[in-house]
Amino acid sequence: MHIDTPTTSASLEGSSTSASQWLSVIAVAVSAFAFVTAEFLPVGLLPQIAHDLGVSPGVAGLMVTTPGLMGAILAPTLIVSAGRMDRRYVFLLLTTGLLISNIVCAIAPNLAIMLVGRALLGGALGGFWTLATAAAPRLVQAKDAAKATGTILTGVTFATVIGVPLGTFIASFASWRLSFAATAGLVSLALLAQAFLVPSLPSASALRIADFKTLLGRPHTRLSMVMVALVFGAHFSTYTYIAPLLEHDFSLSAITLLLFGFGLIGFFSNALASMVISDHLKKSVAAMVLLLLGAMSSMLLLEHSPIGETAGMLLWGIAFGALPLCFSVWIQRSTTDLPEAGSAMFVSIIQVAIAAGSAVGGTIVDRAGIHADFTLGLGLALLGLVTLQRLAVLERPAAASALDCACDASAD
């Protein structure tokens, strides 16, 4: 599937990416910041929202489950439906949907209306991430594609550094409703940045259902998606309910600082990963999954130890700060011929992991407690590591075949 590049970029490998092109990347990164802030805002506010709406923390976790489910369904659906529509206009429509979502959540009188707003977020979110990860290489010169992807994903880490903790901070002196209203203001800024800075992104051909079938027919792609689902499931089945775990040992302001530390160290982890990932992708993925396992283990083993839980949160921040970039580059490399299809599948799998992880985690928290939930998370992360090892084994025959071909060619 061929996709035309925007008029602001050139095809020469040696050309330098212009300032206007980098500004377009930053505009998408600001939008990513707004989307992720809105998506995970309830994580730090879960106890307060649950109390005000008269539901248990596990049921309140549906605020994370619902957008994940909608994103999984609509990530491929929206992009297929968009056909050959200029991707710039699709960006603008999806961000408008996010704005409406936050307004609905800010005024929601009950859980049902809240979930309507969160469902709208999920639909916009799925489409946005499909476009963002596929469009990143189109906004800059070819040699800067990985850097552009890393810059956009920096919006994710900034959201965890600033966005989510800021929402928790606002709620500590005002209310969680004002947190959603403030997020709506942030989305408005992102919408303006897109309108003025993102260039035309025409699509020469529409995404087809057959493209998904092609990718699913590849064993490496299927196994890669399983790995992503397991690791993201491990994270969201536990991180969604981190506030109820921490509130026994920390005040709301202290939890805000922990979430800030989680995001801040994740920002530096993302930056470091972007420098080494090109040459050490598998090692980077393995290291981050191992850190995730260590972080969740420490949260269990060192429970009620403020120092131990703080160390666990920081380790967790390092792991999750790098994992989205690691997996995004992994999928980009394995679906280079069908980038939008690969991106849509990647986003759908992540949203399924968020929805299933938070839903199952919420059920376990309400019925068996936090310990059982974290045990599930550890098991999923361990399975993700096993899947990575299987992918390495799967790639060995292909590498050996390529080496044989090279030897044959040199012999000739």
From TrEMBL:
GO cellular component, as recorded: plasma membrane
Coiled coil: none
Classification via CDD domains: MFS_NepI_like
Transmembrane region(s): 22-46, 58-82, 89-113, 119-140, 152-174, 180-202, 223-242, 254-273, 285-302, 314-331, 343-364, 370-388
Bilayer topology: Multi-pass membrane protein
Domain Major facilitator superfamily (MFS) profile: 24-396
InterPro entries the record matches: MFS, MFS_dom, MFS_Efflux_Transporters, MFS_trans_sf
Pfam family, any one: MFS_1
Domain of life the protein comes from: Bacteria
Keyword annotations from UniProtKB, A to Z: Cell membrane, Membrane, Transmembrane, Transmembrane helix
Principal localisation: membrane
Recorded GO MF terms: transmembrane transporter activity
Cellular location(s): Cell membrane
Protein known as: Major facilitator superfamily MFS_1
Organism per entry: Paraburkholderia atlantica
The organism's taxonomic lineage, starting at the top: Bacteria, Pseudomonadati, Pseudomonadota, Betaproteobacteria, Burkholderiales
